[in-house]
Design brief:
The complex is a heterotrimer of chains A (300), B (290) and C (418).
Chain A: H1 10-44, H2 62-68, H3 71-102, H4 109-121, H5 124-135, H6 141-148, H7 160-188, H8 192-200, H9 205-232, H10 237-243, H11 257-267, H12 271-299
Helix pairs in contact in A: 1-12, 2-12, 3-7, 3-9, 4-7, 5-10, 7-9, 9-12, 11-12
Chain B: H1 20-48, H2 52-55, H3 70-78, H4 81-112, H5 118-130, H6 133-146, H7 153-157, H8 164-177, H9 180-188, H10 193-204, H11 206-221, H12 225-230, H13 239-248, H14 254-274, H15 276-289
Helix pairs in contact in B: 1-14, 3-14, 4-8, 4-11, 4-13, 5-8, 9-10, 11-15, 13-14
Chain C: H1 2-19, E1 22-28, H2 34-47, E2 51-57, H3 60-70, E3 79-83, H4 84-92, H5 101-108, H6 114-119, E4 121-122, E5 125-126, E6 128-141, H7 142-147, H8 157-167, E7 169-170, E8 176-178, H9 189-202, E9 206-210, E10 216-219, H10 223-238, H11 249-255, E11 260-264, H12 266-274, E12 280-283, E13 291-298, H13 303-311, H14 315-324, E14 328-329, H15 337-342, H16 347-350, H17 367-382, H18 391-411
Parallel strand pairs in C: 1-2, 1-3
Antiparallel strand pairs in C: 3-13, 4-5, 6-11, 6-12, 6-13, 6-14, 7-8, 9-10
Helix pairs in contact in C: 9-10, 9-17, 10-18, 17-18
The chains are: A mainly alpha (300), B mainly alpha (290), C alpha+beta (418).
Chain lengths: 300, 290, 418
C-alpha cells in the first residue's frame, strides 16, 4: 500500500482522478444491480406489496412476524437447513478422505482428479436430470442396485423424506470434486518435514492424519464447510427439476426457501412477504459468515 | 496462505510404511468413488441412445442393446437447442469479460491507490459480497422491469456483470504479488496511469485473471433462476432454462430428455477435457483465496 | 397521370410495409395446446398476411409466475390463455382490456352457456373469450376390468373402493405392481388439493364455499372431508391399492401400471400420442365433476389481438381442439358428433346429464394459496398410517387445515360468516 497523504496535491489529484474515473463505471453497475435491489428488499419487506394492486400499505414488522407462524415457511426453512447441513455432512468428510488419498503420488492421479471434478463443471439442470432417471422409483437403476442387497424399491422422489435425501445426495455428488481440490491444495501446502518427523517417531498414517493434517487443515476445513453450507442455502434448481411432474407442472415435494419466496412473491402476489423471507435468508447467511470470521480471527 | 507456488502435479514422497495391501485398497477406494462420480454421466449417455422400449425394460442395462439416434433427432426437431446454447455462450462470455475487466480495474485501484472514500467503497463491496443473489432477486426483477429489460439479452446478462469476490480476489493478488516500486518506476518514466494498468499490471495478473475467468464462466453458464424469471420467449432461453422446460414435455420419453441433456452438457465437457489442468488449478487458486 | 399512378403504387407499397409490422403474441400454460394455436395461426396468417402470430407455451405453474411478473410490466403477450379462477385477481387489477361490444355480445349470446359467459366476465363486463374447460371423468382400462371380472365402471364411491381392491395386481410379496386406482399422492402443489376436491365432491364437500354475505369459508372441515380423507388413507395404508412409488396418473395409465384414475379430458389426446393402443373407456363420476373454464384475455388495445382471439374459437377450431388435443371446447352451438364418432371415449365428457353437479374453482385471489397449503397437509396425511381407523386423527388434520384456510381468507378480507 502506498503511504501517500490524503492531501490534495497535484500528484494526488492526478491519481485520484484516475481512481475515481476507473471506479465510476464499476460503482454505477454496483448501484444498479446490487445496492438498490438490496435496499429495496429491506424496504418492501415492511409493506403489503403486491405486483398488481396500486395500494401498498405499510405493515411494520407484520410480514416478519407472520412468517414465524407460517407453516410453509417453517417447513421450507427446516428442509433447507437439513439439506444445507446434510450436504456438509456428506460432502466434506468424503472429499477430505479422497483428498488425503490423492495427496500421495499416484500414477492415476490426473484421471482421478478429472473424474471427481466432472460433476463440478456439469451444469445443474442436466446433472439433475441424470439423477432423476437414476432415482426413478420404477425404472431407475438405483432401485435395481439396492435390490441386489435385498432392499425393496424406494420412492426416492415422491416420499418427502426420501426426496430431501435425494437432493442431499445429488448436491453432495456435485460439490465433492470442488471441495476435494481445495483440500488437496491445503494438504499439499503442509510442509513435508512435519510428516518426516512423525515418521521418525513411528506415527501411523492415521495418527499422522489426526495430529498433523487435520489441525493444520482446520482453517481450510472451516472455509470449505461454511462455503458449502452458505451455497446450499440457496438450493432451488435441483428441487425444481427433480420434482417436475408428469403433466409438466413442476410440483414441489421438497419445499425450499427460494421456492417459497418465488411462490409467495409471484404466485400469491405477496412481494413484501417474500422480501421479508429474503431478509431472513440473509440473516442466516450473515450468522454463518460471522462464525467463520470469528474462528479465523481466534486462530491468528 | 499462498497457493501459487504449489501446483497439483507436485507431490511429496512419503510412502515409507505403506504396505502393498493398503496401496491396493486405497486404489480400489479411489477407483470405486471415481466410478460412482461418473456413473450418472454414463447412464445419461446410455439412455440417450436407447429405444423407448429398452428404457422401460427391467432390469435396466448400461449398454444399449440396439443403439438409436432417434432421441437426438427428436431433440433437434422439437427444440431450438442450438439457439439456447448460443444464448448461454453469449451470457457466459459477456459476463466473464465484464467481470474480468471490472475486477481487474477495481481490484488494482483498491489495492494501490489511497484516495478519499476508498475505505467506504471497500466496505460496500465487502458487505454486498455476502448477500446471496436470491435475496435481492425480486427487487432486481422490478428494476429490470422499470428499465425495460424484461425478456432481453441485456436483461439476462445484467446481474452478472460484476462479482464482489472477483474484486477481492484481484485486490489480494495485487497486494501480494505486485510491488509498489514497479508502479512508481512507470510513473517516473512519465507513463500515464492507464498505460501502467494496461501494460504493466494486467500482464502480471494473467494467472489470477484466468482462474477468475474460469470461475465466472462456470457461474454464468450455471445460472437458472434469473434467466427463467426474466425470459418470456423460447428464443431467449439459455441452455439450462430450455432444457428444464424441454424435459417437462417428455416425461414418458426419457430418451429424448437424456439426449437433450447430453447436447446441452457436451460443449462444457469438451472445454473441460481440453483445459482440464488449467480449470482444476484455476478453481483451486480462486477457491482458496475467498 | 403516370405520376399519380406511381404515387399510388408507392403509397400502397408503403402501407403494405407498414401493415406487415403487426405481430400478435399468444401465451399458453398448456404445452399440449401449442399445435392448436399453431394450426389456428397458420390459417389466420393465410387470411391476414400482414399479421404474424407467435405462440409460447410453458408448464402451468411457471406460466402463472410469468404472467404475474410480466403482466404488470406490460411485458406479457397480447393474448393470454388463463383459467377464470386465476384471472379473477388480474381482472380486478385492471390488467386486461374489456372485449369490444361485438365480441361481448357474442360471448353473451347462445353460443355459450351462461356458466361460461359469467366466468369470462367481471361486474357485467366481458373480459375473456371462453375457449375450453378442464373437466374431469373416470378413465379406466377396459382390459384390466375384464380380467378382474368387472363388466362396467363403478357408479358409487363404495364401488370405487371395492373395484380398486379387485383391480390391484400384486407381486409375490404383496406389493402392488398395478394400482387399482391411482390417487394423486404427491407432486404439483395445488393439483393435489384439486384432485382431493374432486373426490370429496362426491361426498358433498368443497374446499371453499360461499356464504350468504358473499364471503368465503372452508367447506371441508365436515363429514364429507373426513370421508374423502379416510378413503385416501385406507387405500394407501390399509388396502395398499396405490403407493407413492408406482407411476400413477396419466403416465402410469399409459404405461399400464394404473387400472383407473380421475383426470381431465386432455388425457385422451395424451394417450393418443403416447400409448395409442391402450384399451380404455371413460365414465361419469357418481355425483359430478370439476369444470374449470379457461378463457382468452387480451392485454393491449390491439384490434388484431381481439380479432385473432375471436378467430380461435370458430366452430371448426373448437372441433379441431377436441379431436386433436382433447381439451373440451366451450361453445354449445357447435356439433361435436364427428369427434365423438372418432373418439368414443369423449362420451364421459360430452354427454353430461342434468343430474350431475359440477363444481368450479372460484376466482378469488388466494384460492391457489389455499389449495397449495392444504395440499401440503394432505400429502403428509395420505401416507400417515396412524390415521387408519382413527377418525379423531383425521378430523384433527382437517380442522387444523381448515383453520389455515380461514386465516388466509381473513387476511385477504374475504372470510364470510356461515
Amino acid at each position: 500500500m502506498q503511504k501517500t497523504s490524503l492531501k490534495l496535491t497535484p500528484l494526488n489529484r492526478r491519481r485520484w482522478l484516475f481512481a475515481y474515473l476507473a471506479l465510476t463505471p464499476v460503482l454505477a453497475i454496483y448501484i444498479f444491480i446490487r445496492i438498490i435491489p438490496i435496499i429495496q428488499t429491506f424496504r418492501i419487506s415492511f409493506y403489503k406489496w403486491d405486483l398488481i394492486s396500486k395500494r401498498k400499505p405499510f405493515l411494520g414488522f407484520a410480514n416478519y412476524i407472520g412468517l414465524l407462524q407460517d407453516r410453509a415457511f417453517l417447513i421450507s426453512l427446516t428442509n433447507t437447513t437439513i439439506i444445507a447441513f446434510g450436504i456438509l455432512f456428506f460432502s466434506v468428510p468424503i472429499s477430505l478422505l479422497i483428498a488425503v488419498l490423492l495427496s500421495k503420488p499416484r500414477k492415476l492421479s490426473p484421471l482421478y482428479e478429472t473424474m471427481y471434478f466432472l460433476p463440478v463443471v456439469t451444469s445443474m439442470v442436466p446433472a439433475t436430470l441424470a439423477w432423476k432417471w437414476i432415482l426413478d422409483a420404477q425404472y431407475g437403476p438405483l432401485n435395481q442396485f439396492i435390490g441386489y442387497f435385498g432392499f425393496s424399491p424406494q420412492p426416492w422422489l415422491v416420499n418427502p423424506k426420501l426426496a430431501v435425501f435425494s437432493v442431499i445426495l445429488l448436491s453432495s455428488w456435485k460439490i465433492i470434486g470442488y471441495n476435494m481440490i481445495i483440500f488437496l491444495v491445503g494438504i499439499r501446502n503442509i510442509p513435508s518435514m512435519y510428516y518426516e518427523a512423525a515418521e521418525i517417531d513411528g506415527a501411523s498414517i492415521l495418527q499422522q492424519f489426526w495430529n498433523i493434517t487435520l489441525p493444520l487443515l482446520k482453517p481450510i476445513l472451516l472455509f470449505v464447510s461454511v462455503i458449502t453450507v452458505i451455497s446450499s442455502y440457496n438450493v432451488y434448481t435441483q428441487v425444481y427439476v427433480l420434482a417436475s411432474d408428469a403433466q409438466g407442472s413442476p410440483g414441489y415435494v421438497v419445499r425450499v426457501l427460494v421456492y417459497d419466496m418465488i411462490e409467495n412473491g409471484f404466485r400469491y402476489f405477496r412481494m413484501g412477504y417474500a422480501s421479508a423471507e429474503a431478509v431472513y435468508l440473509l440473516i442466516i447467511v450473515l450468522i454463518l459468515t460471522m462464525i467463520q470470521f470469528t474462528f479465523l480471527r481466534n486462530r491468528s | 496462505m499462498s497457493v501459487q507456488q504449489t501446483t497439483l502435479g507436485q507431490v511429496r514422497t512419503r510412502q515409507a510404511g505403506m504396505t502393498f495391501l493398503s496401496r491396493i485398497s486405497t486404489e480400489a477406494v479411489l477407483m470405486l468413488g471415481a466410478i460412482i462420480m461418473v456413473m450418472p454421466f454414463l447412464w445419461m449417455l446410455s439412455t440417450a441412445f436407447k429405444t423407448p422400449a429398452e428404457i422401460l425394460s427391467w432390469p435396466p442395462r448400461l449398454i444399449p442393446g440396439s443403439p438409436t439416434l432417434d432421441n437426438f433427432a427428436t431433440v433437434f426437431t422439437t427444440a431450438p437447442f442450438d439457439r439456447w446454447l448460443l444464448n448461454s455462450l453469449i451470457l457466459a462470455t459477456t459476463s466473464t469479460v465484464a467481470i474480468l475487466l471490472t475486477s481487474a480495474i477495481a481490484g488494482y485501484v483498491l489495492a494501490k491507490f489511497d484516495f478519499p472514500g476508498r475505505y467506504a467503497l471497500f466496505m460496500i463491496i465487502l458487505a454486498t459480497a455476502i448477500v446471496p443473489f436470491e435475496v435481492y432477486m425480486l427487487p432486481l426483477y422490478l428494476s429490470a422491469r422499470r428499465l425495460g429489460l424484461i425478456n432481453t439479452l441485456p436483461g439476462i446478462i445484467a446481474p452478472f456483470l460484476i462479482m464482489s469476490f472477483g474484486i477481492f480476489f484481484i485486490r489480494q493478488n495485487v497486494i501480494a504479488s505486485i510491488p509498489d516500486d514497479l508502479i512508481e518506476a512507470g510513473r517516473i518514466d512519465g507513463a500515464s496511469e492507464l498505460w501502467i494498468f494496461g501494460r504493466v499490471i494486467m500482464p502480471l495478473l494473467t494467472g489470477p485473471l484466468s482462474a477468475l475467468g474460469i470461475f465466472a464462466f462456470m457461474q454464468a453458464w450455471n445460472q437458472f433462476v434469473w434467466p427463467s424469471l426474466i425470459t418470456n420467449s423460447k428464443n431467449l432461453y439459455t441452455a439450462e432454462v430450455g432444457l428444464a422446460l424441454f424435459q417437462t414435455g417428455f416425461t414418458v420419453n426419457f430418451g429424448a430428455v437424456s439426449a437433450g441433456s447430453v447436447v446441452s452438457v457436451a460443449p462444457i465437457l469438451i472445454v473441460f477435457f481440453l483445459l482440464r489442468k488449467q480449470i482444476i488449478e484455476g478453481v483451486a487458486l480462486s477457491g482458496l483465496k475467498g | 397521370m403516370r405520376k399519380l399512378m406511381l404515387m399510388a403504387t408507392l403509397m400502397s407499397l408503403f402501407f403494405t410495409a407498414l401493415a406487415q409490422d403487426v405481430e400478435v403474441t399468444v401465451w399458453s400454460g398448456y404445452p399440449e395446446l401449442e399445435p392448436f394455436y399453431l394450426h389456428v395461426a397458420e390459417d389466420y396468417m393465410k387470411e391476414h398476411p400482414n399479421v404474424k402470430i407467435t405462440v409460447l407455451t410453458q408448464p402451468l405453474r411457471d406460466y402463472e409466475v410469468k404472467i404475474t411478473a410480466a403482466l404488470p410490466a406490460d411485458a406479457a403477450a397480447d393474448i393470454l390463455e388463463i383459467s377464470s379462477s386465476f384471472a379473477g385477481r388480474l381482472v380486478q387489477g385492471e390488467l386486461f382490456q374489456p372485449q369490444p361490444q361485438e365480441i361481448a355480445d357474442f360471448v353473451n349470446s347462445d353460443a355459450y352457456n351462461n356458466f361460461f359467459s359469467n366466468a369470462a366476465s367481471y361486474n357485467g363486463t366481458v373480459y375473456g373469450i371462453p375457449l375450453f374447460r378442464g373437466q374431469g371423468a373416470l378413465f379406466y382400462n377396459t382390459e384390466m376390468f375384464k380380467a378382474a371380472g368387472l363388466s362396467g365402471p363403478p357408479t358409487t364411491m363404495d364401488e370405487y373402493v371395492d373395484y380398486a381392491n379387485k383391480l390391484t395386481q400384486r407381486d409375490a410379496d404383496g406389493n402392488p405392481i398395478v394400482s387399482g386406482w391411482s390417487l394423486r399422492l404427491g407432486g404439483g402443489g395445488s393439483g393435489i388439493a384439486e384432485k382431493f376436491w374432486a373426490i370429496m365432491h362426491q361426498f358433498g364437500g368443497s374446499i371453499v364455499t360461499q356464504t350468504a354475505d358473499g364471503g368465503w369459508v372452508n367447506g371441508y372441515n365436515n363429514e364429507a372431508g373426513q370421508k374423502a380423507l379416510q378413503l385416501y388413507v385406507n387405500l394407501v395404508n390399509k388396502d395398499k391399492v396405490v403407493t407413492p412409488e408406482l407411476k400413477g396418473d396419466a403416465e402410469g395409465f399409459e404405461l399400464g401400471t394404473t387400472a383407473m384414475f380421475i383426470r381431465e379430458s386432455w388425457v385422451i389426446g395424451d394417450i393418443a400420442s403416447k400409448a395409442p393402443d391402450l384399451p380404455y373407456a371413460t365414465a361419469l363420476l357418481p355425483r359430478g365433476t370439476i369444470a374449470l373454464p379457461v378463457n382468452l384475455y387480451v392485454t393491449r388495445d390491439k384490434p388484431e389481438a381481439f380479432d385473432f382471439a375471436q378467430y380461435a374459437v370458430k366452430p371448426e377450431y373448437q372441433v379441431w381442439l377436441l379431436e386433436n388435443v382433447g381439451w373440451l371446447p366451450n361453445r354449445q352451438d357447435v356439433s361435436y358428433e364427428s369427434a365423438l364418432e372418432k373418439i368414443p371415449q369423449l362420451d364421459g365428457f360430452l354427454n353430461v346429464p342434468e343430474s350431475q353437479v359440477l363444481f368450479t374453482v372460484p376466482p378469488i385471489g388466494p384460492i391457489d394459496e389455499i389449495q397449495t397449503r392444504l395440499a401440503e397437509r394432505l400429502v403428509a396425511a395420505f401416507t400417515n398410517a396412524s390415521l387408519v381407523d382413527n377418525p379423531e386423527g383425521i378430523a384433527k388434520v382437517l380442522s387444523d387445515a381448515a383453520k389455515e384456510t380461514d386465516d388466509i381468507l381473513k387476511r385477504e378480507g374475504l372470510l364470510g360468516t356461515p
